[in-house]
Amino acid sequence: MKRIFSYLKNDRTTRSAGIMFGGNMLANIGAYLFHLFTGRLLIPADYGELQSLISLSNILNVPLVTLNTVVTKFVSRFKGQGEKDSVGALYYRFRNTLFIILATCGFVFLIFSSAIVDLLHLGSWVNVIFLDFALFFGMINVLNRATLQGLSLFIELTITQFIESYGKLALGVGAVLLGWRVPGAYGGFVLIMLISYIYMIRVLSKSLGTPKSDTPIPLKAMGMYALPSFLMTISVVALYNTDVVLVRHFLTEYEAGLYAALSVLGKFIFFGAAPITVTMFPLISEAHAKGERYQGIFIKSLIFLIAIAGSTTLVFSLAPVQSMQILIGSQYLDAAQYLSRFSIFLSLVALINLLIHFFLSIHRTKAVFVILFGAIVQAIALWVYHPDIASVVTISLAVSTVIAVTLSFYYLYVSRT
Asked: What's the predicted TM-score (pTM) here?
């Protein structure tokens, strides 16, 4: 037993995954309480509107969420090769450029915001303004998190999760209690993103220092890597957000509220397993840059993910009514019948996310076209056929199963070659 504990303590993959998973689980308590209280305090129609805003902001963040993969990849590569100045030069140059681009795009977004109001049937224009700010700070924070991740600063990365989850809980729920409904809950969500940004830039300024002004950045290589990263990001995000947005658009407000509750519980699985992928990606990328073995890192990560996703899915499948009642509220019990299949769907998405990040970490970028095709098929199928919640869940489950099986066979092929 002592030898086992010694191994777990000294093994970098296990230690890093433990930090990220443990911190993420504690942070998720705050995120869960936010959804629990807003789900109970808001009527289903308002809760569906809040979740559709959050899902839409996730989808619109995709163009720069791609930056997370690219920056993490190259920061971890620079770290593995001992090029600290290159890390600082990359971060500061990208941050200054993003400020200019996002400020301009934010103004344009407000001009065309009426389409968002019509799409989601929003009750207030204030929500559109908050969405604009959420996109701005969300995209800037993508760069900050990616740099922390690439530097393997997992403790600092975990602290940002604490700030965002418990800050969102305090401000968002407090605003709802004051009677500010959806604008209050979403406004608190946005303010905490600003506070998280301030914390991360302070950490990074100490870690990076002042790089040399003439430090070169491999922009061409980053640009070539950005396309598959973009396709991967938009596909993964689409798999677990497109359904929420389309249900909000096509089904009734009550059904949208039920589906939003399903989505929240299902995302316990995806985001519960996400720290494993977050940890694995820079470690394999760094090992690949050094020419070291990395298969062991992936196998350990896969085992951790299966344990997390499998155990949660088992609980949701054996006790769907109790899980729904305890975790989200009795007003959403009509959705309990779909929880088992929805849990399997999100477990497969978590597996897909792990596999695709593994392929990108070792420059096997062709795999992204598999998940891109699947995400397109899911969106088209849901747009054409959406009679009820059961059909939406069945389509999403079928698509994710095909993607996961295909990527698994590709992994076996890569392992042998």
From this structure: 0.71
